[in-house]
Amino acid sequence: MVTNAKLNQYATGSYALLDSLRRHGVKHIFGYPGGAILPIYDELYRAESAGFIQHILVRHEQGAAHAADGYARATGQVGVCFGTSGPGATNLVTGIATAHMDSIPLVVITGQVSRAAIGTDAFQETDIYGITLPIVKHSYVVRDPKDMARIVAEAFHIASTGRPGPVLVDIPKDVGLEEFNYVPVDPGTIRLPGYRPTVKGNPRQIQQAVHLICHATQPLLYVGGGAIAANAHGEVLELAEHFQIPVTTTLMGKGAFDENHPLSLGMLGMHGTAYANFAVTECDLLIAVGARFDDRVTGKLDEFAARAKVIHIDIDPAEVGKNRLPEVPIVGDVRLVLVDLLRRIHEVSANPQHHQIKPWLHRINTWRSDYPLQVPQYDHKISPQSVVVELSRQAPHAYYTTDVGQHQMWAAQFLKNGPRRWISSAGLGTMGYGMPAAMGVKVALPDEEVICVAGDASILMNIQELGTLAQYGISVKTVIINNGWQGMVRQWQEAFYQERYSASNMEMGMPDFVLLANAFGVKGILVESPDQLAGAITEMLAHPGPVLMDVRVVRDENCYPMVAPGKSNAQMIGLPQLHHCSTTAELIYCPNCGTKTVTTNKFCPECGTKL
After folding, report:
1. Which fold has domain 384-552?
2. Which fold is adopted by the domain 203-370?
3. How far apart are the first and last CA of the chain?
4. With 0-12 CB in 10 A as exposed, 13-18 as middle and 19+ as buried, what is 477?
5. I need a surface site. Which of 25, 112, 342, 492 has the fewest CB within 10 A?
6. pTM of the predicted structure, to 2 decimals
7. How far apart, in whole angstroms, are the C-alpha atoms of residue 72 and residue 67?
8. Active site (catalytic) residues
9. Class at the top of the CATH hierarchy for domain 9-182
């Protein structure tokens, strides 16, 4: 592959693709070859031989999409994956949907049957363009190789600007083979008149936001994944510290605010901290920053922050007002909006009235003291929470990926992550995401520690990627929190389906994970007792290659607190009971005086307010 392509160079469509990817800074591609994409892989062979690009051969195309996704989340760059036509393309669909739900920038390249065969039900033909229409930000079928460079440039521009997302580029086999006069298109030169995301916030609305913030007595920052995508961590910190506003984050927003900071309340929502959920229920001003009022966050929507005025900042106008009508809607890039908001605060000398916030912070700290996250301790068994706590102690600055289930929620509760160091499938909840995503992170950041927290059910969804880790020596450490169940399914069956454990027990047919890892050439470690845990994690972290660690934990541990479906965030189950509360009733706070009481009381016992 030539390093400096000249204008009007005679080349194939495949060459144009690989040269365009190189020009857009692509260093790694995750993929799996097949018939329709072979012309592209033939050109890729030359590119790899010249040292321009490294291709990571996954064992399943879903692994390629998740690896590209993890790569993008950790770096903020566009992730790239390849798959052939037919089943190769359809195997990418779950990964594309995962990226779409979480607004992750991907460029997905699929092979397609030759142009003349499209629509004839040719061997391995699928309409991947049509199949993925609901789960991409945009998509293309390259009908003429002369369009290749322009389409690639547009795909990268669309994927990475505005609200990020996946873009599909489907390339018929003969387009990759056809020769033409190639004219490169460099990054940053594309102009799309019909695509102009709003990045600057409306000054009048920003002024209204400043006014509300200055006069709030119980404000709360509610920060989502948009703050991560916009790299707005510094601005969120400055706003929070200037006004002493407590901060809660969504599952996608973890890491946007230092979770060791005294203003941090951790995650809110279904398995969020009790103090975050009480705070969002009682706040008088909710500042939503790059968040979308997801149902797992809000609980019963009409009771979510019901007493609060709302400022909603988001780059996507479709999200503003979709689930909750804000008093102040601000459409724009989250970081740029916060920069303007902070500038306006300093211009008008909007000095914070910390004395009016102090009672609010005191109240939150009381909740924090009364309802801390619990780490059960057993004499001869390992609690799943203690595994996460020990990981956090020994590897506090690692990049963490997760699969989906109870272990994901425990990891979200107990890990204290920095920016972009929390990588998890939030919107789609994709089991099998964690290990291939960790693979992508480690390829992007080879000098960083990368740990996947998995469940015994989830890990089996993409266990074949142990082969990829072994082939390339990708030093991902995978920790299986193994309770022999589809843990979250079992918890719901226990709580809401009268303990009818239908198809959720994973003990029968469970592999010996240590032997399985060894079969792939990966180090396996088994941990069965609490006294083995710390040493095993130390051994795992010290090993220079990939490791799969199987930790056998208490089988029936549940993830609490939990907001049941249809309940408000203040109505959590699994909280520690206070001495004056019924053992069966749920705890709430009086909205008037803050007295703790239970849901069975219709009136506050202290001030008589109707509950």
Report:
1. Rossmann fold (3.40.50)
2. Rossmann fold (3.40.50)
3. 71
4. buried
5. 25
6. 0.93
7. 9
8. 61, 123-124, 173, 488
9. alpha beta
